[in-house]
């Protein structure tokens, strides 16, 4: 069994996924929430193709990926469990807090002074809630982004765990691994009495 290697392609993929995730979290808009939800469902459907068409350890990886990813989505969206389990998962709670931290709601200030309103193109993009960002936190959108990211996180973890268990099974079934290694002369023997 050879050890898994991290290649430059893996590092580029991790950086790209992180960049999209951080952009979505920073924005917290409906557009990013929809994009993250769409990406998550696309990847989860592709995982079913991986289970059906791949062979060997790749199939094992996609089986674990699909099992944990779809299991998490069922806990979120299935009609019989979404109200009982869904609100108690990590993402809905963490991203509600994160919405307040990243984009706190503006307070009225002290006194009855004038409030500055952005004007022009800059003001339109800041208040529109598009990919550019929103002025006030939209908690349901943050929750959707968090749910999509958590589903992908559980799916990736499921793939890695499935590969780990499969590699242990291969090692246990390997006849060469079951035989003890030859020992040098004089080692491994019990003490002799004088």
* Helix/strand order: HHHHHHH
Q: What portion of the residues fall into strands of 2 or more residues? A: under 5%
* Low confidence ranges: 123-129
How many domains make up the 3D coordinates?
Answer: 1
Strand segment tally: 0
Intertermini distance: 45 Å
Q: Which range best describes the helical content: under 10%, 10-25%, 25-40%, 40-55%, 55-70% or over 70%?
A: 55-70%
Biggest sheet: strands, sense, closure?
Answer: none
Taken from the alpha-carbon principal axes, the silhouette is: elongated
Radius of gyration: 25 Å
Count of alpha and pi helical runs = 7
Counting helices, strands and paired strands, the structural category is mainly alpha
Nearest-integer average pLDDT: 77
Keywords:
single chain, 194 residues, mainly alpha, 7 helices
Question: Could you walk me through the main structural features you see in this protein, from its secondary elements to its overall organization?
Answer:
- It is a single chain.
- By secondary structure, the chain is mainly alpha-helical.
- The protein has one domain (9-104, 131-174).
- The chain contains seven helices and no strands.
- The protein has helices spanning 8-27, 30-53, 56-77, 90-102, 120-128, 139-173, 175-178.
- The model is unreliable at 123-129 (pLDDT under 50).
């Amino acid at each position: 069994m050879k050890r898994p290697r991290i290649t430059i392609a893996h590092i580029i993929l991790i950086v790209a996924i992180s960049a999209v995730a951080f952009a979505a979290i920073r924005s917290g808009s409906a557009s990013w929430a929809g994009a993250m939800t769409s990406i998550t469902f696309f990847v989860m459907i592709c995982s079913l193709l991986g289970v059906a068409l791949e062979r060997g350890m790749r199939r094992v990886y996609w089986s674990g990926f699909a099992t944990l990813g779809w299991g998490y989505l069922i806990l979120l969206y299935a009609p019989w469990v979404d109200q009982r389990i869904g609100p108690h998962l990590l993402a809905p709670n963490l991203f509600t807090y994160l919405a307040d931290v990243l984009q706190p709601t503006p307070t009225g200030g002290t006194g009855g002074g004038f409030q500055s309103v952005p004007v022009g193109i800059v003001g339109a993009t800041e208040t529109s809630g598009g990919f550019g960002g929103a002025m006030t936190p939209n908690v349901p959108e943050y929750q959707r982004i968090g749910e999509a990211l958590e589903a992908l996180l559980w799916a990736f973890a499921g793939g890695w765990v499935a590969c780990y268990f499969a590699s242990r099974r291969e090692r246990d079934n390997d006849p060469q691994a079951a035989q003890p290694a030859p020992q040098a002369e004089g080692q491994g023997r019990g003490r002799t009495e004088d």
